[in-house]
Amino acid sequence: MPVFTAPDGTSLVFDDPGGEGPPILALAGLTRTAADFDFVAPHLPPCRLIRMDYRGRGRSAWADPATYTIQTEATDALALIDHLGLPKTAVLGTSRGGLIAFVLALVAKDRLTGVALNDIGPEIDPVGLAHIQTYIGRRPEERTLAEAARARARSVSGFENVSEGRWAEEVSRLYVETAEGLDLQYDPRLSEIFSSGATQPAPDLWPMFDALEGLPTALIRGANSNLLGAETAAEMRRRRPDMIYADVPDRGHVPFLDEPEALAALTSWIDAL
Questions:
Q1: Nearest to 219 by CA among 100, 114, 128, 73
Q2: How far apart are CA 243 and CA 42, in angstroms?
C-alpha cells in the first residue's frame, strides 16, 4: 500500500499502477475515496491513473478536522505529485476533487496538463449542499450493505436506470459492514469543517475556473444534478467554448463516469492532453 507523508506529517495513501500514457491524478468527492474511480478506470485510454485518499478518508490517516479543507488537500495533492517526481500531471476531479483542481490551477498552473471536472463548477447549488448536510458524518441507519443498497436505490436523487448490482457495488465503496452495523469510510469529524463552511458567504470561484484557460478542459454533468445547475454549466461553456462537454442522462450528482457520454468526453480529453 503506497504511502507518502504530507507537509504537516499526515500519512496519506495513494494508488499508482504506472502504465503508459499521460499521468492523471484522480481526486474524489468530499466523503469518498480512491474507489470513486473503480467504475471508469478499466475503460479509459492508456494513461497512468493515480488516485489519492484524502486525509481523514479511506486508508489515509485521520488528522485535525481543521485541516480537512480544500486548500490543505490541494497542498497534499502537490506533495503527492512531488513525491512521485512528476513535473506535471492532469487532474480528473469529481465534485470536491474539481474544487481542488481549481485551487491548483490558481496556485500551480505550471504543474497541470489539463483538468476534467465531474459534476462541479464555480457555482454550487444550495439544494445540493443542503442534501450533503443531511448525511455527512452520520452512520447510515441500515445495518447491512444489502439494506443500504436498496435504500440508496430509493433515495438518491436524479438517478434512473441503475441496476441493483451497481448500487450494491456503490455502497460497498462507501461503508464498512461491522457487527454493530455499517460504518463510514471517513472521519465523521469532517462534518465539522463542512458545517462551518456552509455558514460562510460563498467565495467567487469564477476566477479559478478562468485560470484553466489554455489547459485541455472537460466538463461532465449529470443531467439531473442538484449541485451543478444547467445555467452554471452553460456559462462555463460560454467562457470556454473549446471545453469538452457531456451531459449524462439519468444521472444526478455524480455520474459514475463509465456512462457512454462520460467515457466519450474523457477519451477526447485524454487524447488532447
A1: 114
A2: 24
Distances (CA, A) of 68 to 74, 86, 100: 11, 25, 12
Q: How many angstroms from the chain centroid is the CA of residue 99? A: 9
The pTM of the full predicted model, rounded to 2 decimals, is 0.97
Lowest mean pLDDT among 178-182, 221-225, 248-252, 265-269: 178-182
pLDDT band at 82 (very low <50, low <70, confident <90, very high): very high
**Could you tell me the maximum CA-CA distance found in the chain, to the nearest angstrom?**
52
**Burial group, residue 234, by CB count within 10 angstroms (0-12, 13-18, 19+):** exposed
Give 197's pLDDT tier (boundaries 50, 70, 90).
low
Q: 218, exposed or middle or buried, with CB in 10 Å at 0-12, 13-18, 19+?
A: buried
Helix (H) or strand (E) holding 98: helix 96-107
**DSSP conformation class of 53:** P
Arithmetic mean of pLDDT over the chain: 96
Sequence-distant (6+) residues with CB within 8 A of 158 are 222, 223, 224, 225, 226, 251, 252, 253
- For 207, the grid coordinates are 476566477
Partners of residue 115 on adjacent β-strands = 91, 217
**Beta strand residue intervals within the chain, DSSP E:** 3-5, 11-15, 23-27, 48-52, 89-94, 112-118, 175-178, 181-184, 217-222, 244-248
Residue 72's closest CA among 107, 113, 120? 107
CB atoms under 10 Å from CB of 2, counted, come to 13
